[in-house]
Amino acid sequence: MNTIHPTAILGEGVSLGDNVQIGAYAIVEGGAQIGDGCVIEPHARVCKWARLAANVRIGSFAVVGGEPQDLHFDTSTPSYAVIGEGSVIRESATVHRATAPEGATVIGAHALMMASSHVGHDCVVGDNFIEGCFAALAGHCRVGNDVFVSGGVMIHQRVRIGDGVIVSGNSASSMDIPPYTIAHSRNSLGGLNLIGMNRRKMPRADIAEVKSLYAKVYANAAARKNALELIAEGAAQTEAGKNFLSFFETEGRHYLSPFSGRA
Q1: Which residues contact 151 (CB under 8 A, 6 or more apart)?
Q2: CB under 8 Å to 130, separation ≥6 — which residues?
Q3: Confidence at 262, pLDDT banded by 50, 70, 90
Q4: What is the pLDDT of residues 30-74, one digit of tens each?
Q5: At 167, is the pLDDT very low, low, confident or very high (cuts 50, 70, 90)?
Q6: If we measure between CA atoms, which residue out of 43, 36, 73, 58 comes closest to residue 107?
Q7: To the nearest 10°, the Cα dihedral for 31, 36, 41, 44?
Q8: What is the pLDDT of residues 93-112, one digit of tens each?
Q9: Nearest-CA neighbor of 156 among 235, 256, 74, 251?
Q10: How many CB atoms lie within 10 A of CB 151?
Q11: Residues facing 34 on adjacent strands
């Protein structure tokens, strides 16, 4: 049975699953889709283009599916903000819908967006994402699984972040961050996120191979060239190793590097 506070505002055509809770003065616009077991806390706003999977929690004053911060956006464009199962969007956090027609901003399953954090339009974020207070992803970012973006971090538009990355607090990145690494300060790479790899119980063989490949890729400033050569040689045998090297296959990108300048 759904529990809806009498002061909550539900638009015409809202789709509600079972066992949904909607708090006082919350707004759920017509057209929004709310999955089973979702909790919409008091004063939260779920816009018409929002699509919430099961067991999502939206905190007070959070906004999901709001218009993108794009001066050229046509507000009549149909686009979406999709929140994965079991994710938590804490108070005053914002997730904007996509700019592309029928496109979607996507937050994966079991994410935690802490208070006043932001995910911009057209971002696609993997599972188990954690974003600290006052952190922000600008539009069109691509984020892998098991990524931790700490408080106060600013990620430039269109940046890619690989699986298992941790971005240290109050840092900024305008360059792609390879899987399993630590980013800090401004466009600085701080080695491998070995603690995170161990906490996720990554096999020892995978960790050892990623360590070896990291050393070879960053043997000098030509990181992408080195990675492509290692791919051609079939150097990676584990899934983690292949994932690490394949990140460098995309042309026309600037990759975070322990060396000054761009790799």
Answers
A1: 114, 132, 133, 134, 135, 169, 170
A2: 111, 112, 114, 147, 148, 149
A3: low
A4: 999 999 999 999 999 999 999 999 999 999 999 999 999 999 999
A5: very high
A6: 58
A7: -20
A8: 999 999 999 999 999 999 99
A9: 256
A10: 16
A11: 16, 52
| Positions marked catalytic | 121-122, 139
Q: First vs last Cα of the chain: how many Å apart?
A: 55
Q: Cβ(97)–Cβ(78) under 8 Å?
A: no
pTM: 0.96
Give all domains of the chain, ordered by start, each with its CATH number. 3-158 (2.160.10.10), 202-249 (no CATH)
Percent of the chain topping pLDDT 70: 98
DSSP lists the bridge partners of residue 255 as 176
Strand ordering across the sheet containing 172-173: 9-10, 27-28, 45-46, 63-66, 94-96, 118-119, 136-137, 154-155, 172-173
Tell me the β-bridge partners of 257.
none
